[in-house]
What we know:
Elements: E1 3-5, E2 12-14, E3 16-18, H1 30-42, E4 47-48, H2 60-69, E5 78-83, H3 98-112, E6 117-122, H4 131-143, E7 147-152, H5 157-170, E8 175-178, H6 193-200, E9 203-206, H7 246-262, H8 266-274, E10 280-285, H9 290-297, H10 306-317
Parallel strand pairs: 3-10, 4-5, 5-6, 6-7, 7-8, 8-9, 9-10
Antiparallel strand pairs: 1-2
Helix pairs in contact: 1-2, 1-9, 2-3, 5-6, 7-10
Amino acid sequence: MEYRRLGKSGLRVSEIALGSWLTYGTVTEREQSIACVKQAYELGINHFDCANVYGAEPHAAEKVLGEALAPYPRESYVLTTKAFWPVGDGPNDRGLSRKHIVQEVEKSLRALNVEYVDIFYCHRFDPDTDLEETLRAIDDLITQGKILYAGLSEWPADAIAEGVRLQRELGLHKFAASQPVYNMFNRYIESAVIPICDRAGIGQVVFSPLAQGVLTGKYKKGQPAPAGSRAATPQVNRFVERFLKDDYLDKVDALQRIAQNVGISLPQLALAWVLRLPSVSSALIGASRPEQVVENAKASGVRLDDSTLDAIEEILTGTPA
C-alpha cells in the first residue's frame, strides 16, 4: 500500500480507503463488515470513512466500524465521520448549525468509541446556516481535540471558495479534505472544485470511484443484475440505475479490453485512473467481502502510461485525447 499527503496537511493516508456507505450497519452483516476492516488494515489501508447517517439507523455504521477498529492502536489509522443529513424529526436534527454539529460529533465519538476523529466532514453545504457559525463550531472542536482536521463533502465550488476565504480572514483552521464523487463517468470536479481546492491545499478523498460497481464489469447488457449486487438490492439500487444504460455498458466493455491489455482488472484500472491525479489523496472503496478489499487494494501503486490514459479518454469522451 502506498500513501499520499492529504492536501497540504501533514497527514498521510492510504491511496485506497475503506468506506461504510451502503454497506456497514445495513446490507452487510456485522461479521462480514468486521472481516473487511480487518483485511483492509492488514493490507496497509489506514483510512476508514464513515458518517452519522450510514446504516439502518443513525450511528449504526459507526458502531460497527468502531468495533472493527477497536483491536488496533488508535494512532495507527485515520478515522472520519460526517454530519448534515437529518437524524431525527426535530427542527435541529439536521444541518450545520453549531448545535447540530456539536451534538452529532459527541454522538459519533460515543458510537465509534474513540476520543477523537481525524477528519470531520460537513456532509453537504447548508444554505440555512451562516457559514461563519459552521466554521467557528468546527474550529472550536479542533481546539478541543475532538476532531483533528476539517473537511467538506460535495460542496459547490463557490461555497468552497467562500469557506476558504472566511477561514483565512478569521484565522480559523483550514479545510484539509474534500470528499466528492469522482469516477470515469462523473468528472464534474475537474473544472472548478479541484482547482479551487488545489490553491487552498485541500486534498480530494473521492467516493464512488467504481460508479456504484458498474466499473467492475459485473453488469451486462440484456442480463439481470447479479444476486447480491447493489442493482439487485432494493434499498440501494436507485444509486446504480443511472449507469445501467447501454452507452455506459458499452464503455465498460471497451474499458475491460484496455484493462486486459494492461494486465490488471477493470476495478484496478478504474481506481488507478482516479489516482492518476496528484490532487486525489485517496479513493474510497466499498466492500461486502474481504476478497473485494484485496482486489481493489492492488490498484495502489499502479501508474497508467500516457498511451493507456489517451485510450481511456477516447472511450470516455468519444474523441481522441
